[in-house]
Every structure is written in C-alpha cells, then in structure tokens.
Specification:
This protein has 105 residues and is α+β, with helices and mostly antiparallel strands. The chain has helices spanning 2-18, 30-36, 44-51, and strands at residues 27-28, 55-58, 64-73, 76-84, 90-96. Helices cover 30% and strands 30% of the residues. Strands 1, 2, 3, 4 and 5 form a five-stranded mixed β-sheet that branches.
Length: 105
C-alpha cells in the first residue's frame, strides 16, 4: 500500500510539471517589440500591456532589468534585455542574437 501511494504521488507530481504553462510574456515577436519600444518613453505599464509579465531583476537602486525572448528559428531565441529606471521608464535595450554554440533542441 505504501509503495502504491508513493507511485501515485510521483505520477501526480510529474503530471503537474508536464502541464505547467510557459511563463507568460516571455517569447514575443521581435518586429512587434520594435513597434512598441521607444527608449526614454515606453513605460512598465506599456510593456505589461503589450507583452505581459516576464523575468525581471530588481537592483538596489530601484532600476530593473527585464528579459524577453524572440523566436530566431530552429528552436533558438534572441534575447531582448531592457533596463527600466526606478520610475518605470525604459532607458536602454540590448539585443543578443543566439550564439552558434547555443544548444539546439
């Protein structure tokens, strides 16, 4: 009986992981990104409205770095990193295409 409960628990745990949705807003169309983003003017609210939430790092200064990804084909992604100031205004953007050594699916 104990083994059965452990097996059922393991199956339920794996099922939960397999059905977890992707993080919202993470992968976006790069051309859409270029249409919305204007450094010095685009706000946090603009980004959330256009692309949804994504990975973010908040620094002690109150500045934030946000990461979005755009499909680069062949299962690879271009990184789109934004620096927002403490007022929530995009100040800088960096685009990193996939490196040749990035893993391919």
């Amino acid at each position: 009986m104990k083994r059965l409960l452990i097996a059922v628990g393991a199956v339920l745990a794996m099922t939960g992981c397999a059905t977890a949705p992707d993080e919202p807003g993470k992968v976006i169309a790069e051309d859409r990104f270029a249409q919305v983003l204007v450094p010095g003017r685009t706000t946090r609210a603009d980004l959330l409205s256009a692309f949804g939430p994504t990975k973010a790092i908040v620094f002690d200064s109150g500045d934030e770095a946000w990461l979005y990804e755009a499909n680069a084909g062949a299962g690879r992604h271009t990184e789109l990193v934004l620096l927002l100031d403490r007022a929530g205004i995009v100040q800088k953007m960096r685009r990193r295409p996939p490196y040749p050594t990035d893993p391919q699916p």
